Amino acid sequence: MLKRLAACVRDAKLTAILTPIFVLVESLIEVSIPSVMANLIDEGVTPGNMSEVIRYGIILTVLTVSAMFFGAMAGYTASRASSRFARNLRQDMYYNIQNYSFANIDKFSPASLVTRLTTDVQRVQMSFQMITRIAFRAPAMLIFAFVFSFRTSPKLSLTFLAAIPFLTIVLAIIIKIAFPVFRKTFETYDDLNEVVEENVRGIRVVKSFVREDYEIGKFRKVSDRIYSLFTKAEKTVAFNAPAMQISVYSCILMISWLGAHAIVASGNVEGAGLTTGGLMSLFTYTMQILFSLMMLSMIFVMLTMSKASADRVVEVLNEKSDINDGELNLTIVRDGSIEFKNVSFKYFESAESSALDKINLKINSGETVGIIGGTGSSKSTLVQMIPRLYDVSEGAVLVGGRDVRDYNLEILRNNVAMVLQKNVLFSGTIYENIRWGDEHASDEEVQRVCKLACADEFIQGFPDKYDTYIEQGGSNVSGGQKQRLCIARALLKKPKILILDDSTSAVDTKTDAQIRRAFREEIPDTTKIIIAQRVSSVCDADKIIIMDNGRIAGMGTHDELYENNNIYREIYDSQTKGADSDE
After folding, report:
1. Distance from chain centroid for Cα 22
2. Please, what sign has the CA dihedral across residues 198, 204, 209, 211?
3. Strand 356-363 vs strand 402-403: parallel, antiparallel, or unpaired?
4. Is 478 within 8 Å of 501 (Cβ atoms)?
5. For 157, 278, 442, 463, which has the most beta carbons within 10 A of its beta carbon?
6. In sequence order, which residues have a C-beta less than 8 Å from that of residue 374 and are 6 or more positions away?
7. In the prediction, which pLDDT does 583 show?
8. Is the CB of residue 319 less than 8 Å from the CB of residue 104?
């Protein structure tokens, strides 16, 4: 895990290295200040020597200013290093997510990915900043202060050693109890984000069914669960502070008692080799040593909290796409012919049943193929094998006579345009959305494909026409308009294979017929696969495939299927007779 995170430091290396150096210098200066103060008391204040007071006063001023300077520089470099580290983490996570296959994406919910990219990265960033600064400062202060205190009084310095085992045991118990709770808390954040995301996306449905109170209840429930877990974890961590205070005050009492006893027993200020200034410096070293221990315990607590986040971040970074360029890396797709050879597919290896089972199918280049079937019959799953959104579990899918796994992935997907069931438009103008198909396309090419998709007619009705701004998700256009824009975007790719996955469901039958006629006349060489619920959308196809429970239950033309296939006949009759009765 650490090795994977360290790879994201990159351009933050210099500032990350400078931070500990500044911290070490700052710590050394801070630890030397009590010794100078002891000399000021013993050599200047006690004998009343003003020249020594002034000399040591100047030295103290220089040391203080120097400590402030190096401390400020350490803070500056630590901040820059941690910010760059967090930026690199988010970039690497985001770039890796872009390479995920659908199977990879299925492992993470959108809410979980959002939490990992934001909250989890922020916690890792804070830990990185603490490691580069406080994690060096605390042990440095501890070592330096102990060395200086040992020089002042070896006997009294041994008092500090009694506190260390006690603090170590307390800290180990805290970490053992708190870590599992923190991990569970951060996982619950995923549930919180999921509730919010679902509510925002479905806000129109929520309001239309007057379910605001129900959604508020869902949010309160998961929010209370986070509160409960965090409270439990923080209560455990809270024991750290009293443990530190017990150690600090116990050490101060012991040093005060032993130091005073040694001085009084000797009958003079120099008793036991300890001066008044030396005793005062020991008090300061006590605070520095135990404050360093407190900082170390805070670091361990913070690292305990962030380890759960770091694990979740590394999971995203280490997840590798199970779909990559083929070994042959073919860069030419000969034509739009498609063949399924004994194809079976499972979404998960542990799944008991296959989503596709022994599919054998051949589609010639330029053919129009319709696919119909009931909900859950794996119509969408079938066509997702073609551009390798998923890879087959058994068998092979051939495009242009070659196994899709032999192609360069980008080349394959550029030759297969797919309009999915869930149509997505992005914030930007219509021109910008359509040019997702080809970013270098001219205005005339964009307008041409929009005419093919029957989108030009409603675009011309907008005040800004093709410069009309589309809101995020296409919320300012209707479902049918969104579908036609997505079809136009796919056509701009000039694909050899065009797949419409129930992407004309929101379009009226007249417009649907116009789109299909434009396809026949304008792109006859493109293989067209149309998944539809309406028989009218596929009845004029060269062949129609009936899917049922992951198998091909029938294949042929409209007339052949109507005569020989009961499933097709039932679907056709139920739709046409329903239409007749409505009339």
Report:
1. 33
2. positive
3. unpaired
4. no
5. 278
6. 548
7. 42
8. yes
- β partners of residue 344: 394
Which of 576, 578, 572, 575 shows the shortest CA–CA distance to 559? Answer: 572
Mind spelling out the 3-state secondary structure of 518-561?
A: HHHHHCCCCEEEEECCCHHHCCCCCEEEEEECCEEEEEECHHHH
Measured distance CA(562)–CA(545) in Å, rounded: 12
Q: Of 275 and 322, which is predicted with more confidence?
A: 322
The Cα–Cα gap between 473 and 425 comes to: 5
Per DSSP, helices labelled H in 319-442 are 379-384, 409-414, 430-434
Q: Which residues contact 443 (CB under 8 A, 6 or more apart)?
A: 431, 466
**Token couple for 367:** 């053919």
CA distances from 34 to 30, 46, 151, 278, 281 (A): 8, 16, 12, 9, 5
Least confident residue range of 157-166, 214-223, 390-399: 157-166
549 torsion bin: left (phi>0), alpha (psi -120 to 50), beta (else): left
Tokens 């998960």 belong to which residue?
348
For the whole model, what pTM was predicted?
A: 0.68
Task: Label residues 427-464 b or e (16+ Cβ within 10 Å = b).
Answer: eeebbbbbbbbbeebeeebbbbbbebbbbbebbeeeee
**pLDDT tens digits along 120-138:** 888 888 888 888 888 788 8
List all residues 6 or more positions away from 40 whose beta carbon is below 8 Å from its beta carbon: 52, 53, 56, 57, 60, 277
Q: Say if residue 207 is exposed, middle or buried (CB neighbours under 10 Å; 0-12, 13-18, 19+).
A: exposed
